Amino acid sequence: MHTQKLDNAHRDAALDFLFRHLDSSMVLYSNVSQYGLEYAGQPGQGEHFGAFSPQGALLGVLAHYWHGGIFLQAPDEPVRVALMQAFRQQATRPVDKAVGTAAQVESVVKTWGLSAEDFRLDSVQQLYRLELSALKPPEDGRSQHCRIITPQAQHRPLLERWFRAHFLESLGATDDDDLTRTVANRVGQLLAEEHDWLLECGGELVCLSGFNARLPGWVQVGPVWTPPEHRNRGYARILTGLTLKMAAAEGVGTAILFTDNPAAMRVYEALGFQRIGDYRVTLFKQAVGQ
């Protein structure tokens, strides 16, 4: 086995490998498909490393993205170890998060000798999958008084308030100027990409849901956010169900998501999602590496 930094000449091989592990590679596959394998400092881009068999077959892919996070897809532990060693030798930027299956994130954590006190968030979440032919959309009367809205520029103040609250509550963010910049960038991306929707019920905006990765035939659901004052009324189920119904009408056949929230699990299971594995999100208190 040997490792090397990947470039766009490896794009087809990387996509073929990631497609075989798509349930836990949606973001990796989506970003490689849209932005390639080379890094020029732009959102969506990252430096990529690959591990190859003696026969030249790709065995694993590691991405170090523009935002400092590592996303790893390497099912076999020796491959993960080799990729992490190669990455540490060639890394040019620090790492502040790791995302992937629990076993794969553990390989990242072990590389730097990190433990629980080094994390501001460490969540092993449930990974869910739904074939949209089995979608169970809400049938109660509340959905008849609601409609989907595509966010526009006039919704920016609301979206920035919601994302700030989401990052603080769900991701353990620090309420500072860095968060203000992160939120502004995220909302700008949302408005540009049009992969997210708002739910309006009774003339009031009550929920946000979208797709954070989208491929031919596949979507990954997220983020889903209901402000505290609108919770426990079924809005997340209504909006997620409606957006998945729209996706199915456009030819999407499979949806993926992950969550560690018991209430969210009940929502998704009511829509027909089935648990298929785990997914770990680990955010470091201090960045490590170069």
From TrEMBL:
Superkingdom as given in the UniProt entry: Bacteria
Cross-referenced InterPro entries: Acyl_CoA_acyltransferase, GNAT_dom
MF terms in GO: acyltransferase activity, transferring groups other than amino-acyl groups
Chain ranges of the N-acetyltransferase domain: 153-290
This protein's name: GNAT family N-acetyltransferase
Organism of origin: Candidatus Thiothrix singaporensis
